[in-house]
Amino acid sequence: MALGVFCGFSAGPSERYVDTATALGAGLAACGHRLVYGAGGVGLMGAVARGAAGGGAPILGVIPEFLRAKEMGDHLPPQQIVLTKDLLERKRVMIDRADAFVALPGGYGTLDEVLEVVSMAALGQDVGPLVLLDVDDDWWPLLDHVERLGRRGFVRDTGILRLARTPEQALDMVAEAAAARMPVPAGDHQHARAAR
Ligand code: AMP
Questions:
Q1: What pTM, to 2 d.p., does this model score?
Q2: Distance (Å, rounded) from C-alpha 27 to C-alpha 22?
Q3: Distance of CA 127 to the CA centre of its chain
Q4: What is residue 195's predicted lDDT score, i.e. its pLDDT?
Q5: For residue 6, what are the CA distances in angstroms to 1, 100, 135, 153, 168?
Q6: Best substitution site from 108, 116, 117, 139 to test ligand 1's pocket, by max atoms within 8 Å of Cβ?
Q7: CA 94–ligand 1 middle distance (angstroms)
Q8: In this predicted model, what pLDDT tens digit does every residue of 15-38 receive, in sequence order?
Q9: Measured from the CB, is residue 107 less than 6 Å from ligand 1?
Q10: Residue ranges of the domains in the chain?
């Protein structure tokens, strides 16, 4: 599976953030997944990529030309790079090239990417499942806000946002959700029909 990881360009307030990002990268590599991410070499982006590269995962990094100098840094692990013209195209390429998504804590960029996937899913568009990975109750305010919007009738499907507490749990959740939306192979349709 190609796993899109959204996360901060910053490293977060404690070592736990970088450790969790590194563990997510190592865990996705151990599962045999490919990493699709924003091609950052620093902060949580860099930690995920180094964890994935350390475990031998292929990496696709997607970055707008104007962020190359600022975000790629000197410690970028080996990866295939797609250069985009802007942030919107980067988001589109990442969403198109990933089968499922995990979001670590981050800033505006991460929030923007998460809400893009969630709003596509809410409108029934073809987008992979997304799981939020908490390090230190980072995603609770967003979940609370979505619940509130649900109570006020602005959001119908408040269950789209799902929360994991460890990288292992996040990887299990996305694998399960991605398997549930896989198209049934033709042969299985026939078996299903014969069984009816
Ligand atoms: P952040 O979560 O803000 O630390 O950023 C994560 C990644 O998203 C970085 O590569 C940022 O450059 C990028 N980014 C920042 N702001 C935006 C935005 N409004 N839309 C899309 N990506 C962004």
A1: 0.91
A2: 8
A3: 12
A4: 36
A5: 16, 11, 14, 28, 16
A6: 108
A7: 13
A8: 999 999 999 999 999 999 999 999
A9: yes
A10: 2-195
CA distances to 63, 113, 133 from 88, rounded to whole Å, are: 10, 10, 23
Rounded percentage of the chain residues whose pLDDT exceeds 70? 92
Q: What's the rounded Cα separation, in Å, for the pair 129 and 150?
A: 20
Q: Output the CATH code of domain 2-195.
A: 3.40.50.450
Closest C-alpha among 124, 116, 67, 111 to residue 93 = 116
Instruction: Indicate the top mutation candidate among 18, 90, 110 to test ligand 1's pocket, ranked by most ligand atoms within 8 A of CB.
Output: 110
Residue ID of nearest Cα to ligand 1 atom 17: 109
Q: Of ligand 1's atoms, which has the minimum distance to the CA of residue 45? A: 6
Amino acid at site 63? I
Q: Is 67 in the pocket of ligand 1 (CB under 6 A)?
A: yes
Closest residue by Cα to atom 12, ligand 1, is 109
Summarize pLDDT for 147-188 with one digit per residue, the tens: 999 999 999 999 999 999 999 999 999 999 988 876 655 554
Q: What is the pLDDT of residue 74?
A: 80
